Batch of 4 targets.
Target 1
Amino acid sequence: MPFTLTLNCPERSGIVHAVTSFLVGRGCDIVEHQQFDDAVRGSLFLRTSFSCDGGDVGERGETTADDLSREFAAVARDFGMEFQFSDGRPDRLLVMVSKFGHCLNDLLFRWRAGSLGADIALVVSNHEDLRPMAEAAGLPFVHVPVTAETKQDAEQRLLELVDEHHIDLVVLARYMQVLSNALCVKLEGRAINIHHSFLPGFKGAKPYHQAYDRGVKYVGATAHYVTPDLDEGPIIEQEVLRVDHTYGPRGLVTVGRDAEALALSRAVRWHCERRVLLNGNSTVVFR
């Protein structure tokens, strides 16, 4: 069975030896290993993928992520590690949308092609516009309208859906509502957002039209974790495409949507493959 170990801890000698000795000692075969030494913060980040054919770690003769975590705890204490073992089961996604369908369409294509690295469980929206797209893919579509008066109830409904469908990751695929601070805290590390990379410039409506008026030469998108600080969470991925004076507002919108779809799908896949580790307000991404 495939597993992935991710960890971070203060940098010191012997960390990699301790990890590999633990795995080899339990008959595990390491298939991919990456690490990063952050000299500025004095920290080490590590991702190791490995397979276990069985063994006597678990009560039923099968190795599980929980079994490995219990066994590894002593090693982690010695090095002050924050760690997680994950098995090969794909994450379950709840995708939130409003009226723009380009990011949802891209995620659906990659999901059906088997290249997303996760399973989409359902689509939630504050509008009905994208119901046909979701239902054509065979997915449940849940309409949760949001107004100033119903915002708290709508967010409670979202949390109920997360629990009901055993959701691992919430993906805001151009969901045009600001989540409350309380909801952001509850979804910490489990929600990814996408937006154009002009921020903090060109805020508000029609950012690409504003960018056209200023004659921008680059169009981009940023995928990041959701935090109470609006659009300022740890960045996972950014896509940048060069443009010139021949691009009108419609052309910039088209390029921008391509960038948004690419950045979001990469961020989702890397998160679900346990390739993204938080490092303060930034991230380490093992591609």
Note: Residues 56-60 have pLDDT under 50 and may be disordered.
Target 2
Amino acid sequence: MRAIRVLSAALLTLGLAAAPAAADSSPSPSASSDSKAPTQAGTSFRTAAEMEQGQTATASASTGDYLYWSFPADTGQRPTVKATVKLPGSHAAQTWQLDVYDGLRRHQSCQYGAATRTAEQGTASVELACVLRTVRAWSEPWANDPLPGTYYARLTVLNLGSADLGLPVRAEVRVDSENIGGAAAVDGSLGKPLVPGIAVTSEAEKDGSKSAVLSAIEPDDGWSSHWWSSRWVWTAIGGVLAALAGIGGYALTRGRGRPTYVPPGA
């Protein structure tokens, strides 16, 4: 019975420790206020406007332009990119598309969401959304899994008549993430996040020279070290439960011992 009480106390302690870890599955709060959000978009990967998660970036452009934004995504996050395009009062039918690329500029497919939508003639606006797969800490070189680092959102129109070319539009883009936690944990991690200029910066750190950083965006609490996840807590809880089940089964099946009326040598 003493062993059962000790294991019960250990289980309670692990349960309290698991509470913060379980909070990883809740949606992440806004990274920063919209007052610092970019008000213009880039026209290529290299000139993409940097934005943080939780911000609503805006841009005024002309129909037919390619609009680029970049944002950081860390291990265990499932980013959701949403875009709204406000169209001019008079226009023909237009098909808009939202594409997301990772730090290696590989196109990332959407788990769900309407990444391509058609705005019929006279429609005031069109809304697009793309929910990415969960960002992994490590992946095989041949795989196309999302990895921690910089991500790019590209907004463009696909089919456009010559009459609508150059008409003014206004775009809004927002990125939010849900933290999946230990459910998406893997054994392994990248040496560095996939951020533009990270190789140049690392080389400069070795020889002590200074070098320009091509990308300055990263999560508020820095990039994850990936050595800890809530999976460790739940694994420990499972081990304690298994031990308790074993002790309880033994206590139920061992019986009451030798009956008092049976002599020791029998």
Note: The longest strand covers residues 168-179.
Target 3
Amino acid sequence: MNKIAFVFPGQGAQSVGMAKDVYDAIPASKAIVDSADQELGWSLSSLMFNGPEEQLKQTANTQPALLTASIAYLEGLREHGIVPHYVAGHSLGEYSALVAAGVMTLQDAVKVVRARGEYMEAAVPGGQGAMAAVLGAEREGLSSLCSSITAEGFSVELANVNCPGQIVISGTAEGVAAASARIKEAGAKRAIPLEVSGPFHSSMMKEASERLAGKLADITLAEPEIPVVANVTARPADSASQIRSLLVEQVYSPVLWHDSVEWMISQGVDTFIEIGPGNVLSGLIKKIDKNVKLININSLASLQELEAKV
């Protein structure tokens, strides 16, 4: 029997029209989207299905929209009776994983991530922070370079350790520019600036994390029904209280995606089912281990084809 992990994408995977097909065809998926609209008090579904794209790309909108779309696809998958051994999500996707594991309700999660997006956007004035994807670098060399530049007075840190040869850096605009100009010192090939509204997963997000802690204090978290592999530790979070503190820490800490996937594989996972728009995580996982089985649930058609794949 396959050992399965469900994985959920983060910001950047969104697209106009996402989850419209399952909304129209699967009553449980429609109920998820309708409940998100009701909880927020405005039509998130209209933004998801119709755009405009520029508005969907705003962090405070992207986060609840992507979470809702992912859980809408999850509801379609649940009809197939597949139960994972582990769940994990990339940054924002961790909240989808927590809903899948029964730790949060969709209604609570959509409120939290809407606030999380607002806090992250507000934490650093526009233009002061930046992020870049660095290709071809070793983690230790890039970390050392970032430490040197930070010591020179321009803060820059590792933000996402995604897969071999792909690490995202985050920090001040000056720090990211300096690191990008000097990446050959870390053995890297090139740096690609990212279109983001802030220096996510860096220490510049501390204010956002403190505000998020206040928001999370009002939310009831249940004990996980399925082990949730946390971004911050790349290991399962043992309890609701640990999950709460890790979600606060996650905002300003690196996403250890590479480590998380390697750990799940070390526990016998041989099948990863990516649930949500796009296929970004499948691409990363393939670079970590090309021998694992990858399944994408990102459309009604993919759900209909599922039985032949599992």
Note: DSSP finds 14 helices and eight strands in the chain.
Target 4
Amino acid sequence: MATTTPTTTTATATTTTTATRAPRRRLRRIADYAVLSVLAFIFILPVLYLLLGSLKPSDQVLDGLTGFLPTHLTLDNYAHVVDALNSDSTGYLWRFMGVSLLVAFVVVTGGLFVNSMAAYGMSRLKWRGREAVFTLVLLLMLVPFESVAVPLFYMFNDQRNTLYIQAIPFIANAFSIYQFHTFFRSIPPSIEEAARLDGAGPWRTFFAIIVPMSKPVFASVAILTFLTQWGSFLWPVLMVSDPAVRPLPLEMSVFQGQQPPDWGQILAFGVLLVLPVLIVFAFFQRWFVQGVASSAVKG
């Protein structure tokens, strides 16, 4: 009479359990992809409408759902935007875009330098009062810019219509410091101890060891800072009245206010405004995803 050994019984049960879980795991994965696909479709609809509308005649832009139909596509709207902003009276499109790029570049590069060093000092160096300073930084994250815009306006009123006043107030950023601080705290202290034994000081340790290890968080901060600064509108409205130093979002508001509004040209202007953001994200995408994933795991 044959007998079933415990090992055989356990192996059979394990195989059965695995075979049962496999279809469930497959169905869960299909459901996840279906939900993510629906969400991606919903989020991409406005961008798709923006792109298709910029390629259509103005009388067909506001036709409801038919605006998604790729019919009568043309680049005339882009040509009209370039022609409309190509004189001393209206300003030049390349100058508006150059101002926005220059200001965003200064804010991003200066912010990466200042905020990363501030976060490194608060997360890795030991000094009296660092926890109190970091708590103050966290509290500053709760203060919206709109609440301090008017005091800043009166403080820098004599510096209006300059390029540097559009960038200087935004280089130091509490949220960027918090992002760097969170990432730096996850780095093992043994790495810095080894560098210290080799004779490296805080500056050399930061630039030669910490910075190369922190590419994901640098990319994340760079993208978020560029996105915020590129779309900045309230501060330029308060501080800029000279077309020579007018950034692109402010010029789009002026362009949109012309009567009667030409929606095809307005959407074409919108595409030109969004395009640099997409390029920056595509360039830093790999490190940005790594930074988000590592923050989620370590957080």
Note: Strands lie at 86-87, 91-92.
